[in-house]
Amino acid sequence: MLKIYGVPISVHTRKVIVVAIAKGLAHEVDPVVPVIPDNPPPHWRQLSPTGTIPALTDGDYTIADSAAICGYLERLHPHNPVYPQSARDYGLALALEQYAGKVFRDVVHPLFHEVFVGPKVRGVTTDQNRIDAVLTHAVPETFGYLDSVAGPAFLAGERLSVADIAVASNLITYQYIGFDLYRSRFPRLAALFDRVLHHPAMREALRREQTVVDAMGLRQDFLSTALA
Ligand SMILES: N[C@@H](CCC(=O)N[C@@H](CS)C(=O)NCC(=O)O)C(=O)O
Q1: Which atom of ligand 1 lies at the shortest distance from residue 108's CA?
Q2: How far apart are CA 5 and CA 100, in angstroms?
Q3: Cis peptide before 54 (omega within 30 of 0)
Q4: What burial letters (b/e) apply to 163-176, b meaning 16+ CB within 10 Å?
């Protein structure tokens, strides 16, 4: 059986879990939290050379990095594709999946560090200036760009693709840790987010991660708006 190493609250692990669910692939999730010292298993660097989650094993095959894993799953099980057929939409999906990486690096990662990893794992006080800088600069830049490319359907065509999953996964964790999507400022992005959350695979992933979300004391009131 496929084994996904990571935790569902992780932006990149959730992306892989949603793809596995969308494709109907049997899998199990083996919890690994790299930010907790000594949490990853001893052979972790063999599974994930960068040390980040997620990694995946499929029998004797091991691969890390969410983009690589999603590409692997698509080739392995082409049914219920998460990559568009047309060359243009395919290119766009890959580009926006990469852009979701920027949203993670510039927005979600620093905020998660300030409100969760720093104070709750490392005993470091939250740096409000750093949070303010992210909200003042990185959020308008990245959310503004995504709002400008979000149309009435999905980000790269008429079907849910890896780009939508990658972007929405960032926005889920961003809101879990207490930050606002600024719906009136980014209405097309908010509408896209709601559409993605209504996809059965995303709903199922959210349902499965509920226990972790509760245990971590994260905010989930945004879900009632998104899923209304
Ligand atoms: N490009 C990688 C990024 C993975 C990544 O940054 N994962 C985060 C969690 S969402 C992580 O492992 N952070 C812990 C660390 O950097 O030590 C991917 O797409 O898998």
Answers
A1: 10
A2: 20
A3: yes
A4: bbbbbbbbbbbbbb
- Do residues 209 and 14 lie in contact, with contact meaning Cβ atoms separated by under 8 Å? yes
What average pLDDT does the structure give for the chain? 96
With cut-offs at 50, 70 and 90, classify the pLDDT of residue 228. confident
- List all residues 6 or more positions away from 14 whose beta carbon is below 8 Å from its beta carbon: 8, 169, 172, 173, 205, 209
142-152 confidence digits (pLDDT tens): 999 999 999 99
Structure-block tokens of residue 201: 């695979």
How remote is the CA of residue 119 from the centroid of ligand 1, in Å? Answer: 19
Give the type of residue at 13: T
Cα–Cα nearest to 30, from 220, 112, 16 = 16
Nearest to 140 by CA among 110, 93, 182: 182
The pick from 7, 52, 102, 116 for probing ligand 1's pocket by mutation, whose C-beta has the most ligand atoms within 8 angstroms, reads 52
Closest CA relative to residue 22, chosen from 82, 75, 63: 82
Q: Where are the beta strands (DSSP E) in 1-127?
A: 2-5, 27-30, 55-58, 61-64
Task: Identify whether the C-beta of residue 53 lies closer than 8 Å to the C-beta of residue 12.
Answer: yes
152 Cα–ligand 1 center, Å = 30
pLDDT digits (tens, 9 = 90+) for 199-208: 999 999 999 9
Please give the C-alpha separations between residue 13 and each of 134, 198, 201, 210, in angstroms, as whole numbers: 23, 19, 14, 15
